[in-house]
């Protein structure tokens, strides 16, 4: 079983071909650098960028494998959530390919792509697993019961974690995308403990019940600290590194405190014959400090920890093709008339999974 996947929901144009034996037969990700000068993704520019490159990536992907579209069992595409202009470019390409070759069409939820990636990269990841989904647009803790079957335990009530990294990077002049820039800068800090004490950033929602998260207070506190440093004429490479390091550690502390409640709920729901597992996925899952913290939490609570390789954390089409394989195996294909959705919560997939 082979599926071609297409991803155009943000600023990555990506095409990949994956088979049901977990082989990645081809994968292209083209990251648009045009947005850097704007400090964020400009939807119109992103959509045009996808238009410019999608055809050639599809051609290259097929050429790599020596196959044609007729050798695919299905065409899978991100049908939302995301920037709708970009999503439409991918969807129209996918519909054209599926119609012209009489292949199955699969409208993939981008978040489900992130959520199921660890089932491709791990040897035997069984449902249900606990998922921390952390990207530029979403931050959620979910129990993944099966394909299309998600229980939401908590979500951010304001900014997404990746957004907090991006905004922090922007205000400290570190460029876009902010996550890798902040992580790199934080690594320059030679006394993380001291930095955490010095900047004393708020660990929001700590000790509260439930699993919701909040990052906007943290972002504001970083801005205030940066302003203070500037007023004292002390905003320099070393202090920026310290502030990034304190910010990153505080993000870790927020996530840790919320996961404590989530793990309790998950372990209650997890059948005894399953190895309880925490999975991290989405762009921010590339952050090594976060991974260390999650590994530590898992060791403490007797959970297995799974994280996809770095290149499959940020947006890519392998995850869309793989979600396509998972859906195709269950006959969860879609009508060619399916409309893309700018907003599409994972919890709404239950209805379509029947
Ligand atoms: O999943 P993704 O590629 O796109 C969305 O679906 O949003 O996630 C992108 C987000 C951006 O906010 C980016 O700054 C963040 O992931 N990110 C990171 C790291 N690499 C990417 N955040 C923290 N540390 C990183 N190393
Ligand atoms: Zn994503």
CATH T-level fold name of the largest domain: Nucleotidyltransferase, domain 5
Query: What is the terminal-to-terminal distance?
Result: 23 Å
Unreliable sequence segments: none
Instruction: Enumerate how many helices there are, as a single number.
Output: 11
Question: Which class best fits the helix and strand makeup?
Answer: alpha/beta
The ligands bound in this entry are: 5'-O-[(R)-(carboxyoxy)(hydroxy)phosphoryl]adenosine, zinc ion
Any idea what the CATH architecture of the largest domain is? 2-Layer Sandwich
Question: From N to C, what is the helix and strand string?
Answer: EEEHEHEHEEEHHHHHEHEHH
Helix content: 40-55%
Query: Please, how many domains?
Result: 2
Average predicted local confidence, pLDDT: 95
Shape: globular
- Report the β-strand fraction as a percent range: 15-25%
Largest sheet: 5 strands, mixed
Question: How is this fold's topology laid out?
Answer:
Elements: E1 2-7, E2 12-19, E3 24-31, H1 43-65, E4 74-80, H2 84-101, E5 104-109, H3 110-121, E6 129-134, E7 139-146, E8 149-155, H4 161-171, H5 178-186, H6 192-199, H7 216-231, H8 237-269, E9 277-281, H9 288-301, E10 304-306, H10 318-329, H11 349-353
Parallel strand pairs: 1-4, 4-5, 6-9, 9-10
Antiparallel strand pairs: 1-2, 2-3, 6-7, 7-8
Helix pairs in contact: 1-2, 3-10, 4-5, 4-7, 4-8, 5-8, 6-8, 7-8, 8-9
Bound molecules: 5'-O-[(R)-(carboxyoxy)(hydroxy)phosphoryl]adenosine (KG4) and zinc ion.
Quick tags:
354 residues, alpha/beta, Nucleotidyltransferase, domain 5, 2 domains, 5-stranded mixed β-sheet, 45% helix, globular, binds 5'-O-[(R)-(carboxyoxy)(hydroxy)phosphoryl]adenosine, binds zinc ion
């Amino acid at each position: 079983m082979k599926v071609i996947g297409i991803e155009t929901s943000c600023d990555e144009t990506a095409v990949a071909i994956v088979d049901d034996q977990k082989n990645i037969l081809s994968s292209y990700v083209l990251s648009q650098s045009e947005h850097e000068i704007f400090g964020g993704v400009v939807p119109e520019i992103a959509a045009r960028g996808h238009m410019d490159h999608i055809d050639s990536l599809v051609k290259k992907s097929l050429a790599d494998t020596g196959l044609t579209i007729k050798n695919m069992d299905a065409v899978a595409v991100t049908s939302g959530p995301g920037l709708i202009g970009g999503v439409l470019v991918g969807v129209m390409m996918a519909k054209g390919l599926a119609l012209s070759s009489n292949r199955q069409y699969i409208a993939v939820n981008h978040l489900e792509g992130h959520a199921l990636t660890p089932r491709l990269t791990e040897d035997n990841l069984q449902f249900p697993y606990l998922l921390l989904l952390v990207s530029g647009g979403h931050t959620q803790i979910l129990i993944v019961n099966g394909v299309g079957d998600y229980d939401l335990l908590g979500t951010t009530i304001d900014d997404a974690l990746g957004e907090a990294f991006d905004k922090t990077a922007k205000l400290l002049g570190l460029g876009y995308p902010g996550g890798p820039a902040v992580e790199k800068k934080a690594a320059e800090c030679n006394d993380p403990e001291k930095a955490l004490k010095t900047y004393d950033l708020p660990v929001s929602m700590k000790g509260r019940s439930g699993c919701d998260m909040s990052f906007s207070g943290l972002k504001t506190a970083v801005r205030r600290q940066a302003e203070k440093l500037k007023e004292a004429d002390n905003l320099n490479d070393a202090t920026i590194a310290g502030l990034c390091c304190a910010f990153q550690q505080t993000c870790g502390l927020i996530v840790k405190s919320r996961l404590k409640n989530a793990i309790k709920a998950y372990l209650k729901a997890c059948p005894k014959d399953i190895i309880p597992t925490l999975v991290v996925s989405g762009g921010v899952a590339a952050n090594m400090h976060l991974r260390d913290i999650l590994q530590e939490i898992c060791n403490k609570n007797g959970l297995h920890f799974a994280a996809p390789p770095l290149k499959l954390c940020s947006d890519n089409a392998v995850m869309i093709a793989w979600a396509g394989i998972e859906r195709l195996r269950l006959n969860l294909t879609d009508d060619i008339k399916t409309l893309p959705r700018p907003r599409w919560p994972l919890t709404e997939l239950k209805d379509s999974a029947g």
